[in-house]
């Protein structure tokens, strides 16, 4: 009989795994623009943000830290480029909006805890599991988690800004294991990104679970991830751990 696998550490992604924005980015940007006398469609800003974010991430990965940027400067540039792509060419008019948006997205009130997150974290604690965060977020994450009552659940919070490498770089996962004093074989990671979370953790020998939500899975992902590693919601994690460890459900 094969020895029972026992998971001792669960690491967590944050955005769209434990938290999400209360309102879409385009709406947040449009609301703040109106407060500064600029009328820009939320839909246009949402589309422009996706373009600006992707371009900035490609040109300056991980907040451009290796190129001398700060995460704050990185985000201000994303906002400026978003409005530019949405048709607002006056950078001077956008600058105070960018400053305010940076502060707003630092505020816990801009975020909401996903359904089942707190109950699942508490259930993990009852099992004696060590919990930690591995996130491609910036330095604002700690205060956001404190404000939403989640920080107390984690032994540590490791952001890509602090680590110097973003997921799926294996070094950020290895750094987390080092901080937790754990080996990959007794650790599992939970996240919503197939590439950054699921594949990133698997690549270094950790177990991983992919939080998918109720939407249909991409065929590539569906064919690549075993069904027992897929979480339609956070409430599915504890039963998935039971199956992984070969325990009767609910014990």
TrEMBL record:
Lineage top rank: taxon: Eukaryota
Protein name, entry field: Haloacid dehalogenase-like hydrolase domain-containing protein 3
Pfam families assigned to the protein according to its UniProt record, in alphabetical order: Hydrolase
GO cellular component, one term: nucleus
UniProt-listed InterPro entries: HAD-like_hydrolase_domain, HAD-like_sf, HAD-SF_hydro_IA, HAD-SF_hydro_IA_REG-2-like, HAD-SF_hydro_IA_REG-2-like_cap, HAD_sf
Membrane-crossing segments per the record: none
Gene: HDHD3
Species annotation: Trichechus manatus latirostris (Florida manatee)
Family, as annotated: Belongs to the HAD-like hydrolase superfamily.
